[in-house]
Structure formats: structure tokens, C-alpha cells
């Protein structure tokens, strides 16, 4: 079964914030999106494009701007030999199985189609397409892909589960689980937790898990970031309730700000530079002191595309985590890609180090 998200209209396609909002909401509800299509309402081949998508995918969510909402309904009606009728102040195909304000659902033998009317600066209409409960995700840490496969496959066969292992970064694999005809997803996940209690987190969104566990344990966290410009802290701040665990975070690009805000020793910067284990260690300590937190995260590196040297080429990033209870971990990474990909990888490695430092928190009763 294949699932597609389709957006229709220039007002969605070229409005990045709105586009990303739609993707986030749909992925939160559906979890598995196989294809994403961004179409313009003015496209002369819109009818053929929608027809082709419906032939490829069993489940389709179509998010269309107001201008193209009725056009989309007309196309779907034609494809299904149906008529448009007025229901709930909307023109929609008469065979719509269920509808809500700004949303309706069409079902037949081959397709389930949920059409959403999107309005700028307003909440997304209700998603009527039901989540596929045959698919779940877990995260496994500190194992390579081959070892994951060797350990999980016998268990997966026993519970009739199809397993797909996706590498996120070194030592972090996202595992997609799909239940076959008589599959037992929950039993498989329970077995995986028993088999690898300190390596498995049965959640797809690790940052949501980190935030929830910190809130649950009333643990304060602060960050001091340079090359990531607050990306790690902004990732945590996306989740509700973080005001209970975050007093403040610092973005300290300039060396004099590292000195003034974090108390980094000028001699450290002169002898080792801002991109160094020594500097990150003092950033960690400074972040704890200035925020009175329990845990700190610090990142300093060269994200590029300029600024690299022979000793510290582009992609050199030092990442550290520190706990008042469990000491600190600092590692040097050599990351590749463009500036944004390097920054995103750094955030993922920071999360990984945080999990490593506080296993008793993040892997307890996952």
C-alpha cells in the first residue's frame, strides 16, 4: 500500500512556511508518506497528473488552496463518474463517504482520497484518512545495520513483521516495521526491548522522546551553540511543555561573546581556537552555570562552505554534552555535505551523545 501527499496551488507551493506546516501535520498523523507531489493549479496537465497519482497510490491526501479546491473536486468527480454536490458549504463529489469543515473523503475499491481546503494563516482542516496501524517505527542505537538485521530478523519472522533498517547517522538506525497478514507489531516491539533494553527506543521522533523524558524527570537543559546557530535548541522548543525544562539557550558565534556570556577563557581561544575540545568543554560549563541547568549541550565547528583550514577543514565539528551527575562527553566529527546538511548532522550527533550520557533517563521504560 502506497501513500501520497499532494499539494495543489501556487499559494502552497511557494509559501515555504505553509508547505512545511502541511507536511508536519500529515506526517504526524499518517507517519508513512511514500510520495510527495507539489502541483500548480495552472498546470494544463493537472487532470492527468492526478489520475496518474491515483493509479500509483492507494491512499492520497490532497491539500489544495481555496482557488483550486472546487477544480480538484471536479477532477475527482470526473475520474470516478460522479457529480459535485453542495454539502456543508462545500462542493464535493456526491460519493464522499465522510466530510468535515474544509475536508472530505472519497473511497472506492482502489483508493482512499482525503481532500483538504487550505487557508493561509489558519489551522489545517481535520485529516479524515485513518492512520495505517500496520506500520510502526523504532530507533536502535550503537549497532550497525548488519548487526541490527542479524538480531532482529529471526524475531521479525516469528511475529510476521517486515523490517526495513534506515541509517540516520553512525550508530543510529531508524527501523520501519510493517505488519504482514498475521503480524504482531506490539509483541515484536516488546521482544526488541527485552533483547536490547539499552539500545531501543520505540518512538519515531527522538527529539519528542528526549523532551518528554526531560519533562517527566524534571531535568533542566541548556545549550551553547556556534555553527548550528540555535538549531538544536529550536528543535527541542518545537514541543509543548519545554518551558518546564529550558530556562534559556545561547548562540555564541563571536569569541568575545563566548568569553562574556559563557566565561570561556581567552587563553583557551588563543591556544586552541573556538573549534576545539577545550573550548566546547568550557562552553558546556558556562551554559550550566549561566542557566543553572542540570544538563548542557555545546556545539562548535566549521559548517562551511568557507572558513576551513588544513587542520580544521569544513565539516569539523566538536560536540559536547555535560551532566552535573554523569560528567561530560566531547567528540570531534568530520561531517560532509553542504552547510545545512552539516548543521543538521551536528544536531543529530548532539542528540545521540545526550542519549549516551543519560541512558538511565532516556532508555528507562521507553
Question: Which terms would index this structure?
Answer:
single chain; 366 residues; alpha/beta; Molybdenum Cofactor Biosythetic Enzyme, Chain A; Maf protein; 6-stranded mixed beta sheet; 13 helices; 17 strands; globular
Summarize the structure in words.
This protein is an alpha/beta fold. The chain folds into 3 domains: 3-118, MoaB/Mog-like domain (Molybdenum Cofactor Biosythetic Enzyme, Chain A, 3-Layer(aba) Sandwich), CATH 3.40.980.10; 135-204, Alpha-Beta Plaits (2-Layer Sandwich); 207-362, CinA-like (Maf protein, Alpha-Beta Complex), CATH 3.90.950. It is built from 13 helices and 17 strands. The strands form 4 sheets. The chain has a 6-stranded mixed β-sheet, sandwiched between helices. The chain has a 5-stranded mixed β-sheet with strand order 14-13-15-16-17, sandwiched between helices. A 4-stranded antiparallel β-sheet has the order 10-11-9-12. Strand 16 (316-323) and strand 17 form a beta hairpin. 37% of the residues are buried. The mean pLDDT is 95.
Task: Compute the average pLDDT.
Answer: 95
Tell me roughly what share of residues is in helical segments.
25-40%
Radius of gyration: 24 Å
Strand content: 25-35%
CATH class of the largest domain: Alpha Beta
Distance between the termini: 29 Å
Please tell me what the overall shape is.
Answer: globular
* Element pattern in H and E: EHHEHEHEEEEEEHEEHEHEHEHHHEEEHH
CATH superfamily of the largest domain: CinA-like
Domain count, please report it: 3
In DSSP terms (H or I, runs of 4 or more residues), the helix count works out at 13
- What is CATH's topology name of the largest domain? Maf protein
